[in-house]
Design brief:
alpha/beta, Rossmann fold, seven-stranded mixed sheet, 11 helices, 45% helix
Amino acid sequence: MMTNPSQTDRLFAGSIPQLYEQYLVPLIFEPYAVDMAARVAALRPARVLEVAAGTGVLTRKLAASLPPEASVVASDLNQPMLDHAAAIGTARPVQWRQADAMSLPFPDAAFDVVVCQFGVMFFPDRAVAMAEARRVLRPGGCLLFSAWDAIEHNEFADVVIRALAALFPERPPQFLARLPHGYHDRAQMAADLARAGFAVPARFHTLSFMSRAASPRLPAMAYCQGTPLRNEIEALDAARLEQATQAAEAALAAAFGPGAVEGRIQACVAAVSR
């Protein structure tokens, strides 16, 4: 029986946290974490809440860039991701907290900054999650979040999803387009923030980098086995995960060459004051 994608799109469990950290973090998340940590540090916050911290790539940058007296709470819905983040560790102590962005277990006005790197796309109701972020921000505090731009502006992901569509023509796996790259309209983001109660217009910035890997196998592994795309592939046919990974690898090699590869990645970074 086919699994409903809504049941698997937000499931980061099994070996996904390890593969996510090993392959996807250096491939696409690292440069954005450096940028986001610098944006947070420039605000000179005393209390920071990170939502959807994943395996902690931004958490580690925050711990290193903020002064020791600044407190950092790193939260995520998926306990396996937090467990992996905590096992990697940070330059100084942070508080790890399992938490649902839709119902944050923190008091009103508890933080100077709420930051979310590439998590907002996964929230079932983004305006509700944004309203929760606003609630736990002090007056004058800032919400910062990032979201991937449309998939055609993210070359590795675009090639992978096209390769899998050819491999599974009757039911193409669409996780990458549906969620990670499915929330990129700035007008929609602004409307969601307004619904959440933010009265000050948000500032949106488009940020592009070049993603690099030593071989096409690395981005193929990153996307096919280090994200919930794996859940979708296995729901179609669990025996074909390696075949799918190889198809993605071959398509990446055809597009970018058989050796070291590089492709553009692009995202939107938003900032809004309470």
